[in-house]
């Protein structure tokens, strides 16, 4: 039994001061992952600062017509927002496919971005794991790795980033706003998730006590015609084996605008820039989609157990883009 002290913050500055001044303290938001990890003896904070009453729950538009989501808005609230449903359908779909209804009602958007990996070795406190205990090794490299990553991996960690909505946000160039002990900062979404490299325990460029306050998505007209396609072992309550967030505009049979990001196959939400660069200006058909997907996966480093993900990811990309083209044919965006 480890004693944990608990306090409740009512404003962001107090919460940041409380956590940043004590290296043994952590924020507590929805708790849908954190409480599990406390019980499993994976995380060991001595003090929890509850931030659930902070006024960070608004969902609205920015001055340039983009979307601003308070860090403590619940996944279910964001998915139900008419603004999100109309302008960013891929965000809604990723949220609805991302967790059970009960979890969506509890889990916050900021917490979703910071959720820990689902690698079974990470979650077993008796196992070695470079991410949990730096320098102890990575048993997944030679062990059970069916759900692990094939892109962005290192010799020190191959855990897949588990979030669905983060994949949609990566495709849309979202920004993460924070308040830390040294003031406010804005992080480009791609920079907010660190590759494991030789320090997989560092997942984000946050200081201790730096709090996510909001997520902003710039106005993105192509996002009105978008989808999130998730392939998994069963139809609910399961993480992606491969997923694709895509937004597509086709004019006269040619790709005019495109956003693509991959989930379930990479150590971070994976912006598929090779696919975008290859396809913009190219004919919108299955052959070019398949070529682009092959290029994106060219540097994949699978294990024996997850080699199937390379082909699965390619096919998921093609299916997502073909679906969007088909939708365009039926009802032009
Ligand atoms: Fe730990 Fe990463 Fe290896 Fe899993 S893949 S055991 S999280 S170091």
Describe, in plain words, how this protein is organized in 3D.
The protein has 333 residues and is an alpha+beta fold. Among the domains are: 59-114 and 161-217, 2-Layer Sandwich (Uridine Diphospho-n-acetylenolpyruvylglucosamine Reductase, domain 3), CATH 3.30.465.10; 224-325, 2-Layer Sandwich (Enolase-like, domain 1), CATH 3.30.390.50. It contains 12 helices and 12 strands. The chain has helices spanning 12-20, 34-39, 75-80, 82-87, 89-96, 101-106, 109-114, 165-171, 189-192, 273-279, 286-296, 308-330, and strands spanning 5-8, 25-28, 47-50, 59-61, 67-70, 175-180, 183-188, 211-217, 226-231, 242-251, 254-263, 270-271. Strands 4-5-8-6-7 form a 5-stranded antiparallel sheet. A 4-stranded antiparallel sheet has the order 9-10-11-12. β4 (59-61) and β5 (67-70) form a beta hairpin. The longest helix is centred in the C-terminal third of the chain and has 23 residues, at 308-330. Bound molecules: iron/sulfur cluster. Iron/sulfur cluster binds at residues 117, 119, 121-122, 129-131, 138-140, 157-159, 200. This is Xanthine dehydrogenase family protein subunit M. It holds the Pfam family CO_deh_flav_C.
């Amino acid at each position: 039994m480890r004693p944990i002290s608990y306090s409740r913050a009512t404003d962001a500055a107090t919460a940041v001061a409380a956590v940043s001044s004590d290296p043994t303290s952590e924020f507590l938001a929805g708790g849908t992952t954190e409480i599990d990890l406390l019980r499993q003896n994976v995380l060991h904070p001595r003090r929890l600062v509850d931030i659930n009453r902070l006024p960070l729950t608004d969902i609205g538009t920015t001055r340039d017509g983009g979307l601003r989501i308070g860090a403590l808005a619940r996944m279910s609230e964001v998915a139900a927002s008419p603004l999100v449903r109309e302008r960013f359908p891929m965000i809604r779909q990723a949220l609805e496919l991302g967790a059970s209804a009960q979890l969506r009602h509890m889990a916050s958007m900021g917490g979703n971005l910071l959720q820990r990996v689902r690698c079974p070795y990470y979650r077993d406190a008796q196992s070695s794991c470079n991410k949990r205990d730096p320098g102890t090794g990575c048993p997944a490299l030679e062990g059970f790795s069916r759900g692990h990553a094939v892109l962005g991996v290192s010799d020190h960690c191959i855990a897949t980033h588990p979030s669905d909505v983060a994949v949609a946000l990566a495709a849309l160039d979202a920004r993460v706003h924070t308040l830390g002990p040294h003031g406010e900062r804005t992080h480009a979404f791609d920079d907010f998730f660190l590759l494991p490299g030789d320090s997989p325990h560092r997942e984000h460029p946050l200081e201790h006590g730096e709090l996510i306050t909001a997520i902003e998505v710039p106005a993105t007209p192509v996002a009105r015609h978008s989808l999130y396609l998730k392939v998994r072992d069963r139809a609910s309550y399961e993480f992606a084996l491969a997923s694709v967030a895509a937004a597509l505009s086709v004019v006269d049979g040619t790709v005019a605008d495109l956003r693509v990001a991959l989930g379930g196959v990479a150590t971070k939400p994976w912006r598929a820039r090779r696919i975008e660069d290859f396809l913009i200006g190219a004919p919108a058909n299955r052959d070019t989609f398949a070529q682009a997907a092959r290029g994106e996966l060219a540097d994949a480093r699978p294990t024996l157990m997850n080699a199937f993900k390379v082909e699965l990811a390619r096919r998921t990309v093609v299916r997502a883009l073909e679906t969007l083209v088909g939708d365009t044919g039926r009802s032009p965006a």
